[in-house]
Amino acid sequence: MLNSPRDLSTSQGDVDTRDASTRDRVLAVISEHGPITAADIAIHLGLTATGVRRHLDLLAEDSSVTSRAPHRGKRGRGRPAREWVVADLGHDHLPSEYDELATEVMRFLREQGGEDAVRAFADERVAGLEARVRDRLDAAGSDPHARTLALVEALGLEGYAASARPVGEDSSVGVQLCQGHCPVRHVATEFPELCEAETDAFSRLLGVHVQRLATLAQGHHVCTTFVPTPGARSHKERANR
Length: 241
Fold this sequence. Notes:
Elements lengths: L4 H29 L2 E2 H8 L3 H13 L3 E4 L14 E4 L1 H6 L5 H41 L4 H14 L4 E6 L6 E6 L5 H6 L2 H14 L4 E4 L8 E6 L6 H5 L2
Antiparallel strand pairs: 1-3, 2-3, 4-5, 5-7, 6-7
Helix pairs in contact: 1-3, 2-3, 5-6, 5-8
């Protein structure tokens, strides 16, 4: 039996909706795991690499994602697969706060109370995050590596698209804590105090001095924080120097 024109229209609408949903999932995977190849995205989502590349082409057309050559260390035989990261417009499609309003409020706060007021607000804001995730980290024990993995899980639940990447064999040197999404990225571009307060909070939560290597607010594709694991001084020891 042939479909009526109305049935065909409805079916096409369903297909378009599914395609848009899949592209959102592709974008979310790139945000959390990028730089990442089309083949690896396909594994994460249970799709074919061909299907993923079709969605990547569409995302690239509207400047939501961009590709780049892989790092030298990842190259093997044959032509290396390109890796994908979220572009600026792609971050705008991810869940975000009201950037313009928030920036105006921060400017007003700075005008009325100065830089100290901005930092006090940043500290107060991140204190809420610390309180929400501390129990999860404490349950992981005192090892910085285990606490970092617990923090990654907690940040993921908070919407930061977090992941952990080992530095050195079996994380013998440390761990890179990566955040593929930041809900205040645009505001932090003008007010880096938000990033600084978050970095200090990570040091307190993990018990070691961490180093922020890159941020989305600075134009990088991901926020990266280095967490040392072997023989690192505790945060308290460093603070008492």
